[in-house]
Design goal:
The complex is a heterotrimer of chains A (129), B (172) and C (378). Chain A has 129 residues and is of the alpha+beta class. Chain A is 18% helix and 15% strand. In chain A, strands 2-3-5 form a three-stranded antiparallel sheet. The termini of chain A are far apart. Chain B has two domains: 132 residues, 2-Layer Sandwich (Beta Polymerase, domain 2), CATH 3.30.460; 32 residues, no CATH class. In chain B, β1 and β2 form a beta hairpin. With 172 residues, chain B is of the alpha/beta class. Chain C is of the alpha+beta class and 378 residues long. Chain C has a single domain, classed as Cytochrome-c3 Hydrogenase, chain B (Orthogonal Bundle). In chain C, the strands form three sheets. In chain C, strands 1-2-3 form a three-stranded antiparallel sheet, with helices on one face. Classes of the chains: A alpha+beta (129), B alpha/beta (172), C alpha+beta (378). At the B-C interface, β3, β4 and α4 of B face α9, β6, β7, β8 and α13 of C.
Chain lengths: 129, 172, 378
Amino acid sequence: MIHMALGVIPQLIKNLFSRPMTVAFPHEAIPIPEGYRGEHTYDVDRCTSCTLCARICPNRAIEMIEAPAERQETYPKTYPQIDLGKCCFCGLCQDICSSGALSLTKGFFLSTTDRLASVRFPFPTDDEM
Amino acid sequence: MAGVNSEQQRAELLEVTGLRFAVEPHVAADGTMWISAEHERLPELLAFLRHNGFAHCSAISVTDWPEDGEFELTYHLWSYEDKILVTVKSRIDREEATAASVISLWGPSAGIHERELHELFGVSFEGNPDLAPLFLEDWEGPPPFRKDFDWRAYVREAFYEEGNSREQSYWD
Amino acid sequence: MSKATGTEHMAKGHRAVDGYDLYFGPVHPGSGNFGVKLTVEGERVVAARSDPGYLHRGFEKLMEYRTPMQNAVLSDRLCILESLNWNLVHAEAVDRLCGAEIPRRAKCIRVIMAELSRIQSHIIWYGVLSKALGFDTGFKVAFGYRDYVLDLFEFVTGGRVYPAGYLCPGGVRRDFPDGTKKRIEDLLVTMEKMVLEFEAYDSRTMAARCHGVGVLALDDALRLGATGPVLRACGLAADVRRDAPYEIYDELDFDIPIREEGDALARSIIRRREIGASITIIRQVLDRLPAETLPPIKPKVAVKIPEGEVYVRNEIARGEAAVYMRSTGEAQPYRCKIRGPDLLHMIPVLEHLLVGAEVADVPAIYWSLNICPADMDR
């Protein structure tokens, strides 16, 4: 009732002495919890090419492709290429992966001006080696 | 789930509807009642239910059975007093898809569902004055929610390019 | 003040203007992605025609091509403002078709998350209503408090706004992480503080702009298909959680705020009280939470749904949501009809309420119905 009688003055005084809710990102940050569904991480050496990730993806963001010619001896089967533009980051591929090769990390800085950068190739490129 | 009172009313309703309309309603495990009716007796049955407390038309839906050549209309009705959910199902012909509108029983709350079904399935509801297009604008193709409308082919043709490497996965 | 129409006023040789069409939306900062075409004479609306379809994605058809786990991920997007509630309706439909026994802990988690999503949805409503009425501080404060709820969602489900089918057929995708119970309890204390702050702000301006505006009589509400807070503001005590309880709602003791006036202020008061009711529900469920741990649900590519049909109703923040699912024994549902409360609120109810209103009252009426174009268009 006092609130209604004095209007917003009590709240105003309270506000003068309290911290705003705003978190001044990037100088401060709220820690990202474990289990956050961010960017994918993929270990080609643990992959068994079961193709379950490509089949469970609701958006067909995962396509099984063959290895480049020079690696086909070590990697003879097909491996998942993930198009982050189509991905909805649901994590079904992570849950279904039978060998633990594919999982989601806490990375969320995915904005880019290069269209092809959002297609994640399963093999490291030469300059990443 | 439902109280004893509801059980009793449900049993009574079952008996009365069954006897009067020669239908066989059955009660599912979760307490909902399902009635399949012949299309000719459908308006009478729905009016009977409306006047026996089923004031809320929760939804009207159409299921497409192309092999049988039929559409199955489902009316989902709820009674606020007796707390019973009844679904009435009826089949109509797919080519000549017409049904009587229930707008006189439930008003615009049923009328809006009929308008949506008219646009998406092509069912005409006689007696509904407003069957104007609802969601789609300038749509000239067949009713899109029918099972024989190949929406993937339409989307591929209208929006995607086969030459684009990122759209390859849509060509199966 | 004379109520001369445009024609009489312009009779002195000016071009006669009877009325004109005013588009409220879709390209309007205060309308969401939905438009209403108002025919206006002076300051008064004489006719209104809703223009839906800007967010039509063909959900019902999309769901026919996906398996239940994939549909669970898709069901967030039925209305992103209350995604967990829609996850729950879909999950219940598939569970009833499969005859699955859900563990009690999963049911408790489902109720907690659904109620948190309801609180979050009402916070958004409060913020957007404030913004539409010009009270920008209310908008900023509401969305600031909403962020605390979203932080909890991020902790539990992995995503702030999109829980990716966290409430899925079979239970929940993964159990609560350690420390969730304490975090929820702290969050509820913050929410109670927030409710007091909303009450403090709400005294004069909001009440004056919403009082007596957009009055809906009970028989009109039933005829036009209103459900949820819109119907409860007209005096009918109808709530699916009480009338046809699902999950563990039959064991819980909670208030269902009812008002008689049927105007925008009544709807606003009900939604604010519902935040308090949800807080009570969550506290009761936290007390009843069993101690067992749930294994995470592993999605399967080809799991068939048994043949049958089911119609499941839930009470979401906006009203009554339902899913009619018909399966013929395949892995994908044969037909999945989605009934959202907003198809009724945004077309018949809105068109009825806007007739005779003044243009300045249009945002108050519009947002007091708490519309969401996403579950209307699907």
